[in-house]
Please model this.
Amino acid sequence: MDFNKLQNMTPIDLNITQSIGTDSFIPAAINTTNELSSGYYGLGVMLISFLFITFITFKQDGDIRLDIMRSMLFGSGFSLILGIIMLITGFTTSLVHLIWFLVLFATLFIITLNIKKKGF
Model:
């Protein structure tokens, strides 16, 4: 191996305008994340949490065993609460994604109530 070719490398220069020690680093990181994802950061976090909670509560080998409707209801409720917290704290700026999970939660709640009335 010829290590002499590594002599021409320049050191990495990270040009961070906000220093980590200041209080403005976290808001700058949140704004950058929202800008880079075109506002879909909150939807991604809520969707991943919805799928994770639904999968964990529906799988039959764990301690919690729910049917698919109740698992989706639990997952959408958790994602809705997470979305509200993220919107209030300023991690996300889009209310539309929160409304999607609210509609999903309300629809699944009505379907689950109808299934329970029928005795299934």
